[in-house]
Amino acid sequence: MSVARIPRSSPLLRALSVGKAAEMLGPLFQALPSVLKWAAALVFVFNIRSWPLFWHFRIYSTIWRYHRLLLSARLRLLGASPKAKQSGLEKFYESRLHLGESPFDRVYVWKEWAGPDDCDFNMHLSNSCYAKHLDVARFDAAIQMLQTGFFSGAWTALGATHYKFIKEIPMFAHYELRSSVAAWDNKWMYVVTRYVTHPNKKSKKAGSKHPGSGDSTPPLGPPFVPPIRTPATTHDTPSSLHPYDSALHDLLASLTPRTEPDGATLHCVVVSELCLKMGRITIPPAVALAVEGYAGRAPSGEKYDATNNVHPHLEKIRALKAKGNLRSAQAFFRGSWKDLKDQDRWWMDVLGGDVEERRRRNLDLVSGVQRGMEGAKYV
Predict the structure, then answer these.
(1) Among 97, 116, 272, 321, which is disulfide-ready with 93 (CB 3.0 to 4.6 Å)?
(2) Which intervals carry biased composition (Polar residues) (predicted)?
């Protein structure tokens, strides 16, 4: 008995095969729209920091954070007498000062992580995102550093940035931007920001290399400081300077040791040139820093201590915030400091000594970087 065979090309077989495939793939096709929705939602969430206006939100949130502190202080004094309000606000402004601190001693830390939207096809933090997150970290550091200026209505303008990439930051890594003052002249303040990561716990258990752990790298001594070639003052910048590469090398060697004090890994170093503005008026960095209470050591070698009222110009600083408002500080920043004679410019005295010596030394380095880039315009 012969059995009839259906040719493979038969329309009936094709119909049966398509029907069976449709039956098997039906649930998959039904679930596909949900999968696409979830995938789109995940992409949207992963790129949250790249949404329109999110950069603006992060920048202004740093301002709002400190203005909320001022608003909170005023709310606490709502039911107080006018005299008590003035006294309370004066104490608030004074509590935000850096009385007796050296401008070079404080490091302002901003924490970040390398999200998918920040990384390139090599799964490393992209070059553009170094700048994007530096904007926020640098702005936050400036506000912490110069709160009286910002409360008075001043703002910072960025003149230039100089990047030195040392090691890539991998995707999903948590890293820190550590900003500190390097130097200043009569207009510009030079801020150095270091991008660092901390070694994970597994690498520590495995015996990762850190200073003093017996690795082949000898312990670092004091930072290298090249000799001062041209004295730098608050009104002059050096005229005899390194070529750009040499200046940047000296700057990195002097200001940024290869290993951070806490063993963190250094990935990138940035030098930013900032100036403080009140409207279109430029506020000299020395003026802005002195108003915040920064100071060098006393002629006797002792550190100024505001708690013992030995800060040499504490009363002048307090007078700028008299009666719980900043009208005197605003007038000072707008230019009344120019009316003082040279012998009465107290900010020059308070930022003298060891602070002035370090400022001159570092200014010689950062100015070399600046002049080197300026010269590149004519290449």
Answers:
(1) 321
(2) 231-240
